[in-house]
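Narrative of activities, Objective 1.

The group set out to show that a structural description can be obtained from nothing but a protein's sequence at a throughput compatible with the screening campaign. Below is one input-output pair from the validation batch, recorded exactly as produced.
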Amino acid sequence: MSNESLDVRDRLVREKYFSLRPKPLEQWLWRQGVPQTAERVFWLHWEEGMKSGSWCSEIPVKRVAVLCCVDPSTVTRAYQVLKSLGLLRRQDPGRDPTNPFQQATAVTEVRVPKEVVAELGRYPNRRPPEPARGRQSGEGAPTLSGNLSMPVEARREPQGAPEPLRAAIAAPPMTRRPSRQEAQARWRRASEAERGRFFAASRDGTPVIEFDLETQLTLEDRHCLLAQLAQMAEARHAAPKAALTLGGASSPGVGAKARSLSILELARTRKQLLAIVPGAEVAERLRQIAWAVEEGALSRFDRTLALNIAVKKLREGAWTRPNRMPPNWLLRTASPEICSAA
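Output recorded for this entry:
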């Protein structure tokens, strides 16, 4: 065993976890003079929200204080500072009437200020990973930048294809994501006929188009356009299959992307229901509303509008249980937290 492998710094780098902090957001926090304790609280919720995939987290205040090595009162002040800067949004689901000694933990959503979004373009991007080498043609298509993959069928040479098309199909895979300026320049080089064929192919789900014999597009431009068509064609044909349920029946709105309410939206709706229906019926009503908005008749509306429609029907006494709702459909619930005032 070499001396280098015994270095504790090498073990930290190779074996332990890292904190993921985007530089534009971190430098914006420094410029705002955010207290260090508030930064700890923000990055804790950032990492937990990133792990959950919804950018929302449910951590009791006492647990946040332990993880950040501060007092609970300091955490409360940090929440006030972060909410004033637009970095956090918290929603209290309300106390459960059936168990007054427990209350649901507030749902915290991390947000990015508009100033950070406006200046993202001046920060450099990370270098994308290099494509895998030594891959056989029968094992699949080469990976392109920006999660674009070109199927094998799209890369085969069509019968009687013109020279520009054959050259575009044989072009090497892209090694980086094109910038916005490069994409605009590419479309300026494309002719009206090529733009029309691209639009028709994207509409019909065709992964290959024919370029002009005297096209102004480079090999990289043509390969990028073909990769985009291949991705759109794959998504177009995969959408109806993803909409099928295990029983083989399709859900309403075949081809529509399945959606789910965020924890923050569920918490806000639950708090509204506590003021409308008896406490013992809140859980069941919330479950019915969530199914109607995610998979039922209200799924064709925007999520916020659908929730408002459901709450209004409950308030007016016009809400009924959805007919096609499965009896064993489960709903995500907030984790309980012992009430410190009890």
